[in-house]
Protein: DNA (cytosine-5-)-methyltransferase
Organism: Citrus sinensis
Amino acid sequence: MIDHFVGMGFSEEVVAKAIQENGEQNTDLILEALLKHSASSSASSSKSKLIDHFVGMGFSVDMVAKAIQENGEENTDSILETLLTYSALGQSPQAEQHINSDQNSPELDGSFLDGFSDTDSFEGEEITNPDPDKEEKLVSLASMGYSVQEASIAMERCGPNTSIAELTDFICAAQMAKAADALLAEIEDKPRPKPSNGYHKHKKRRMLDYEKPPIDEPIRLPNPMIGFGVPSNPDVIVHRSLPEAAAGPPYFYYENVALAPKGVWDTISRFLYDVEPEFVDSKYFCAAARKRGYVHNLPIENRHHLVPLPPQNIYEALPLSRKWWPSWDTRSHLNCLQTCIASAKLTERIRKALEECDGEPEPPHHVQKFVMDECRKWNLVWVGRNKLAPLEPDEVEMLLGFPKNHTRGGGISRTDRYKSLGNSFQVDTVAYHLSVLKEMYPDGINVLSLFSGIGGAEVALHRLGVRMKNVVSVDISEVNRNIVRSWWEQTNQKGTLIDFADVQQLDANRIEQMINAFGGFDLVIGGSPCNNLAGSNRHSRDGLEGKESSLFYDYFRILDLVKNMMQRN
DNA sequence: CGCACTATGAAACTCATC
DNA sequence: GATGAGTTTCATAGTGCG
């Protein structure tokens, strides 16, 4: 019983309490109590949040665990002090480790920390005499956006009496040296266009690597996939320093699938002015997973989520399915919403397999395994006794944050609805990133929206209350353009919507024309085709050079044109 | 022709273990 | 570090029907 609810993502403590309060019999009441609890409290326990917080600053997990053990959970200042002391002394300076928490359970067991006290790599007696001056400098450098590792090694190399300015110079010089080497290594690569306003390597790097051969480390996906922070775990990364060439105006926001073939995100990031991608799973925003990478130059401080908050798990999103949900289906979130749905043949096979074991209290293990494998593969939900079904289009609309009937009618087929929705943004996730624009542009913004699809960016901005003065929207699909146009009119937008079918139509002349007419674009947003990158594609997963996915280079081309023209003005 | 339906794996990841 | 089991994935091409 406890395992059942723990499997849904609730913590053991909370489940035990809910069972105690409601009795073992009434699972509905227990679930309700759990949902209320998760709605009222944040998704993470305080301890795991605390760990995440410091790990996000670049400290290793075992270091953080040790520091919390020494100082208690309450005094975060003294924890930080201890961590800085460890770092200053050069103890276990690896920064790449993350907590290996269960992706499905945001809360951690109380016993979680126990394992770490045995694996400490540093001893108490080595930290007797922390140098206060050293600490102060570390704090200063950390607040400037440098990692503790970079800072502490720079101090080690430069000596104790080095000024902050000299230390930052040292770090920059090391970064540039690494960049030059990397650039030499890249010349061998296949030819590529370069940003015309210069190419500067300025990624935050870990000083430890400077000893190693100058090979660019490939981009890795974060675990948990929370980017620079999500509402339940905000500001994991407090500061980031953008490369000079990346700074706006205009702001830009590029999106694609996180699980692309190797090297794809390295290339994308390289083109987009060396901005580090922000990888986020939408399961932290809604009831369905959606692992995506976002390269953008927006500020990341003081983001806020959309209201009202969407359903955070399957039970909130699809309350009617609760009645039929068996205890052995422990899913709390759906998998990625894709462009195709399961066949009726499959759900029939499942129904028959389940009916064959109707007499027993629970299907045998191999049947459960078969059913659950298909449920996860096809995102099936329970709609009756032994009955599973794919999501309806309006349910997909809701899960992705679009208004009901957004893609309905006007001549679009059911198949095309699934396809357009499956290719879209998750609105709440994107809106969280875009939310900083609201205060920056009280008078509204001009938007260049490439590969708009069904208008995920426009819907997100509208729901945020960001006024759109002029929107230039480009999408190859006529039904998609109709959907956006129809939404634009239904929501009584005061601004102007101009649409194009093909990004090729946007050449330098036309872009210059529009920039002159509108006074420039404030936001260039878009997610280029993923079909040659996505794992579901058996036939033509050709990478970034694939037929459609290579349109990424048009996103870059247009963005770079806009940047240059706006810089000139 | 438009539409609904169906069959079709592998790459790349995570996690545990040795 | 190496290995292996387990899990996830904004899809395409072909067929058949009205």
